[in-house]
């Protein structure tokens, strides 16, 4: 039955997608009109449900009639104390052992809830699900200048978890730049190389929630014990712990225990340790023991390769000039970059339109408009000095020449308008003494733009340039 379904699916989707999403599936059982298929992970199952549920349905109806049912069996990753590698084929006699998580999926039900897969009490052991997303691999994490240090440190850690000086490894950077992806990639690679190691990925938010629950239920010690048996602990978005002293305290103890026992800790954060607020000093100093590696915004070439890789994996073809166009206009965030490509594909397939540069323009425009662009003070100074054909040093100089003073005041005015920086910080970044100078500049610009026509034109032109 299943091979007939596969043949049908193969004829109807992209070869790359077929290879990625259907070849790894094993049919395990047919009882009546219910077919059980085994998929490698929870993520894999969710992806199938999200992207291929229709074609699965059609193919199964053809084989088994309108009442056909599909049961997903999710292969378990790592049983604590069980050395069976994740990728190994399981002999059919052992299959029942894997079925701790059958998910019975009626087709009409959009997204059935999985039982919480976090801890599955077995008869003898406790299984710890790694909570890793296998598609967040190193292979899929494209390297560029913006992430080279962090990516390579991640690879070093994955080769020798706990055995490098990068412990903890802290990955930091702005939203949508790949912190979560890279953190998973390290875990995925470790599971691949050391299947017997217990790896756990968890967000700081969920960690906090679990801790609070454990206190309520009076089993704080179980909570601590659970974390102390982990070999590789990955905590995402540790800035979430700020101000949460109880959770910080318990994390401090867990961290020390793991570190002393040569276990690997991987953390991500939206800020460098020096900039983290309301995190206890003793924790911050621990964070600095290892390596802090920053993820910066990727350059154009890296953005293009990220897009190409994504399209390739999804089995979608797209002309180069369109890829270039998207990469050129969406700069600050990889998540948005992917979002734009996804909606481009969606638009073209819903409306059966060809993907043209005009369609790309429409979509990119929507993306750029929808996202509040963060303009930096450096960028403002650059735009203003370019506009007045001077260089940034001249703009910042102490000179009292009128046109330079005006340019400088405009830069301060826009910095106040477009950034969240304090007056004092704007002043010092634009080479001024104090916040009073900035305040004065803002007032002057306001006054002049309502009295001086030429000046008003400067403000309008610059607003356009800065607003993109
Ligand atoms: P963050 O956790 O920093 O907010 P994510 O890890 O969620 O960012 O990344 C956002 C999206 O961008 C994800 O889909 C991720 O796969 C993708 N991404 C980020 N950096 C890269 C990269 N270097 N190569 C490929 N994909 C990337
Ligand atoms: Mg993240």
UniProtKB/TrEMBL annotation:
Pfam families: Bac_DnaA, Bac_DnaA_C, DnaA_N
Keywords per UniProt: ATP-binding, Cytoplasm, DNA replication, DNA-binding, Lipid-binding, Nucleotide-binding
GO cellular component term, pick one: cytoplasm
Domain AAA+ ATPase, residue spans: 165-301
Single GO MF annotation: DNA replication origin binding
Domain Chromosomal replication initiator DnaA C-terminal: 376-445
Source organism superkingdom: Bacteria
GO BP terms in the entry: DNA replication initiation; regulation of DNA replication
Domain IV, binds dsDNA, as annotated region: 349-468
InterPro entries: AAA+_ATPase, Chromosome_initiator_DnaA, Chromosome_initiator_DnaA-like, Chromosome_initiator_DnaA_CS, DnaA_C, DnaA_dom, DnaA_N_dom, DnaA_N_sf
Main location: cytoplasm
Record localization: Cytoplasm
Transmembrane found in the keyword field: no
Chain positions recorded as ATP binding sites: 176, 178-180
Region feature (Domain I, interacts with DnaA modulators): 1-93
Key word ATP-binding present: yes
Assembly and binders: Oligomerizes as a right-handed, spiral filament on DNA at oriC.
Entries under NCBIfam families matching the protein: DnaA
UniProt similarity note: Belongs to the DnaA family.
Function of the molecule: Plays an essential role in the initiation and regulation of chromosomal replication. ATP-DnaA binds to the origin of replication (oriC) to initiate formation of the DNA replication initiation complex once per cell cycle. Binds the DnaA box (a 9 base pair repeat at the origin) and separates the double-stranded (ds)DNA. Forms a right-handed helical filament on oriC DNA; dsDNA binds to the exterior of the filament while single-stranded (ss)DNA is stabiized in the filament's interior.
Domain description: Domain I is involved in oligomerization and binding regulators, domain II is flexibile and of varying length in different bacteria, domain III forms the AAA+ region, while domain IV binds dsDNA.
Name of the protein in question: Chromosomal replication initiator protein DnaA
Organism for this UniProt entry: Winogradskyella arenosi
Lineage: Bacteria, Pseudomonadati, Bacteroidota, Flavobacteriia, Flavobacteriales
